[in-house]
Fold this protein.
Amino acid sequence: MWPVGRIVGETLLSVTLALLALGAGLLDDGGTLRAVGVALGVALVSPLRRVLPAFVLLATAVACVPLGGFAPLFLVVSWSAGRRIEGLGRAAGVFALAYGLTLGFTALWESHLSLPLLAFSGLFVLVSLVVPGLAGRYWSQRRALTDTLHEYNAQLLRERAMIAGQARMLERQRIAQDMHDSLGHQLALIAVHTGALEVDRELTGQQREAVGVLREASVAAMHELRDVVGVLRDGAPESPQAVEASDEDSGAPSRGVAGIEGLAEASRRAGAAVDVRRSGGVRPLAPTADHAAYRLVQEGMTNAHKHAPGAAITIGLRYEPDSLVVEVANGPAEEPVSGSVASGGQGLTGLEERARLVGGMVHAGPTADGGFRLAGVLPYTSPGDGFPSPPPGDVMATFVAPTNDFRAQRAKGSAGESDPVTDWNGFPKELARTMSRTKRGNGIAIGCGVAALVVVLLVIATIVGGIFLMREADSAMIEPKQYEAVTVGQSESEVREQLPSGDSFLNSEMGKGAPPEPKGSTCLTLLSTEFGSDLDAEPVFRFCFKDGKLIEKKSFETG
């Protein structure tokens, strides 16, 4: 089924061709009924050129000879056949047959057609048939090459995305292994030593409670490290059901909004003043946003403990109509903090990346009372659930090429280090064959186009030369009956009014065999429109005047 646009276009084209055919039929004085019939035939045949290009071309070539209304359709059908006939040999055969049919029917239909006029008609038909056909074939080949290039581009994009994904996966695995080997070992040592210290009889009750908090924190850190390493190795977050089941089995605290109260309680047990404030109706968040809220509170409390020990901490969870606003604010430090506190500045950067991935934002800055405030806005839905993704320009730079940059391919290395398809060092075989066929087809099309242009120039030169020769012949040639109509004794002015002037290069040289002119006379020499007795003889008429009268007229042949 054709799309609506093509149906409308075909309808308009058929109507236009039918109106042209109707106008041509009315001008030919063939009758209104015949003109209407030709117009209807053109309108019905026009859409068939898409389905039967060769048959419609041959039928139109035959019909345009007796019915001039098919001439505009003939040009359109030639262009369409050049586009749709597959195979150069088949197309050349169909066009040659169409040309032969058109020229043959022209010779049969016009019985009085002279040889020069028939040759001119043949050249005109050749140009009218070949030029639209070559144009249609060139357009079709160019479109096929463009489509192939688009497919090749899409293939490169897909393969580049696969290579980038593989590179990210390998990098995640490397990071996971490093984290497991280094942090896992250190956290395990912390948990063992704090566990041993907790049962020491020399510690007071308050000291045992502090050591217990440290042991629980180290165990929780080990669970979190296990989850992060699992995510990095798998390349995708675990499902919420799997995380909940794992948490239940291991006794690890929840790492979402529900686990924020646990963070506050752990800090309270360590002696910090923490206040959790909630407002608005509680609404569920996407797993990634829920985890980001937990990490934001965790980072805010960590910063408060490091940079403002002893300061009061306020955690705010405000459920807005479209997002959750999470705030962690602390007052000024009670005592100056020594410069030995480690701070790499990576925590806030990681929070900004987490918030960006879920479609939110993070803000951090000092408060009016000298404290510090960390706030984040996290939407209830993630980009995958319909939330708009961040613009490409905001993506942080990595070692992987930017999205949709299919030219950013790896340079070709040694064997086994690169994929020949994505090295951009050559085209695939399918594309190379298509380009080769297109180049050959374009070369043929250009050659035929040049030949057609030469033919057109020759036709124009022939027409101009014919007009010039006709004008010269009118000035230098007369028919035998004009010669017989002139009588000796007529006045010179009367005779010259009946005859051409004779001023032409055609009769400038009469050749041998001309009889001598009468003495004291002026003669007018003209050529005959008839042929001579042989190929070397030229029939000539001569009129000689003296004293204002015609004194002699002669008919002879010159060599």
About this structure: The radius of gyration is 49 Å.
